Amino acid sequence: MIKDYTILSFFLFFLNLSLYPQEVRIFHVGDFDLNGKVKSCLVITDYGRESFEFNEEGVLKRTVTQYNDSDQDITYYKYDGGELVEKRMESYKNNTLDASTSMANFYTIDTVPQRKVLEKIVSYDKQFLEQQVYQYNEEGKLVRIITSNAEGVDETTFEYTPYKNEITVSTFTNGILEKSVRTSERKTKKGVQEVILTKEYIDGEPNRATEEVFSPNGKLVTSEDFLYNVAEKEFISQEKRFYHYSDGVLDKVVTKTVTTEAVEEYIFQFDNHQEKNWVKQIITPNNTYITRVITYYPEKEETQQGPNDKK
Hints:
The protein is an all-beta fold.
């Protein structure tokens, strides 16, 4: 199920994914809060613009981040047999390719005896930057990432701990706990909610946490931030956000702390496509906005056979 992160900035989407070692991931139309056979989506905000292009199967094939008229980053994705085999990030400054900051990622997939992915990263000026080996268990879950670069070799391991109706995934870097994510279920009168509790650690010691609650249809209901209090030896709530919807569309977000309460209201405009997508989002009272220019692949017309047609 794709979680509804409508308010998440597209510019922060990949940044959030890069905070911790992750398995190689293929992105689809639905990951960007888009519906239908989307060909491209240009996202325009008051702080920049970014475009996403997809193939006819809905898989991301190119992104362009435009910083100004002369500076931009372009990322290309190449697939083979449903696997990501190459990713290229080209950085342009003053309309000129910067070979030192542009890089290519090459992926080699081995599935015997268990799945293993080798990723090599080199710059356009032919400097080796990094190599990562992703190892999976018999169930197809990522269990280890070995990273090699000029600074040495690091090992990231993932432990999966099931307990009743929940599972916790713990991330260790060179044996030191870095993050844990516990996914559990909570029964309510409206159905079963999913609760995701993420804890972050520094040198193995608890630092901060976030708890997200999702409705049975995948809508984000609440999100709460915590900081660890060393003296009290517990996580203390800092801020909690409540998400309200109208006809399935985000209507407002109420943010509460111990001493304050703030309300942001969301206004959406939708296109006329069969599978509607929003094309403008306005957030009041600050009147910030996001505009999306969306193009679609033509829908294939289905032909029906008449009773006298030859078979």
